[in-house]
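Researcher: Please translate sequence to structure tokens.
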Amino acid sequence: MFRLALVLLAVLAAEAQDFSDIRIEKFTGGYTFTEGPVWSRDGFLMFSDVPENKIYKVVPGEKPQAWRTPSGKANGNTFDAKGNLYTCETQARRVTRTDKKGTVETVAEKFEGKRLNAPNDIVVRKDGHVYFTDPAFGEQTNARELDHYGIYHVTPKLELELIAKPAGRPNGIALAPGGRTLYVSNSDERAVYAYDLDKDGKATNERKLITGIDGPPDGIKVDEKGNLYVTANHLPIYSPQGKLLHTIEFSETPRNCAFGEADFQTLFVTARTSVYRVRLPVKGSVQY
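Model: Translation complete:
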């Protein structure tokens, strides 16, 4: 009974959050197609411009710098607990890890002897377990060797495991606070799936958490309360139970997002030609 009461209180607290006074400003602009934002604990934002084959680094108050070009047409990016950068290189069809010295290592490139389709988005749990999506969009479909779209798990020993072969294309990926639930958006189904994760990183109990999203969902992030921020036609915010709490509207179509700044209470949103900065009444969930 006590545990049930705590769960009910948590649900009520999440639904009672006030998202009505949200401030949006353009952080930087003038790009072709922005994606894969991630905030470094060292105080800067990184994001991809996919068609331009670049990863940018932006220190607030300073001019954006092209940090890596060519980037393998990088899409999703994330950091691990050691500060290594993980990148989904859609053109190179691989996932890489870059350490603080700039050394690049391939984390995943083939499954059962066949090249990946086009790794899209990625997240790393605090204990080093990696999860990424491998759909195929547009001309990427012409070069496929695998007969499926995939959601993958990479162990700390770099062992590659297939979690699921969804019928629709998996896209954004995120972890709940504590790292025991994995969320994956499905662009074709306009839905978000959830999976339970154990201490060894294994995924079970696939279930559809959110349906009927306005537009194909892309990147996902989670705040410290467990709410999900899903980029689609706009940016809807859902409770951990999948209830729509609020929608943030943008003049450009959002494609991904990431919490950042010193208090982790700013959401950076990549949207077509720009990156937007959104101040929120809640902190993001820290996974690294």
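Researcher: Any highlights?
Model: Residues 1-14 have pLDDT under 50 and may be disordered.
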